[in-house]
Amino acid sequence: MADADRICSELKSAIEAKLSDAQADVQGAGGHFTISVVSPDFDGKSMLEQQRLVYRAITHLMAGDNAPVHAVDTLKTRTP
Fold first, then answer.
1. CA 31 to chain centre
2. Alpha helices in 1-80 (DSSP H)
3. Which domain CATH number covers 46?
């Protein structure tokens, strides 16, 4: 598995593990990613609160000098 594919898979798994019934789509490479997430956890929350939930799920992949994720260029969230 290519490094970019592995990181996309890790991001997807981390998000889906932390958010109820989440379906995540992750694309990207070179440390920059586009993420789209559908989860009922977003219901009644502001866009900022929804994005914070996603970032909390992937913080460990963005931490440190050698983090595999440098930036989330686009983050889309919605309820089912």
1. 13
2. 3-18, 47-62
3. 3.30.300.90
Residue that the structure tokens 């977003």 belong to: 42
Pairwise CA distance, residues 42 & 4, whole Å: 27
CA dihedral 58→60→5→13, nearest 10 degrees, is -50
CA 8 to chain centre: 9
Distance CA(27)–CA(43), nearest Å, equals: 24
Q: How far apart are CA 6 and CA 31, in angstroms?
A: 12
Q: What pLDDT, on the 0 to 100 scale, is given for residue 1?
A: 60
Question: What total of structural domains would you count in the chain?
Answer: 1
| pLDDT tens sequence across 16-54 | 999 999 999 999 999 999 999 999 999 999 999 999 999
**Containing domain of residue 11, as a range?**
3-78
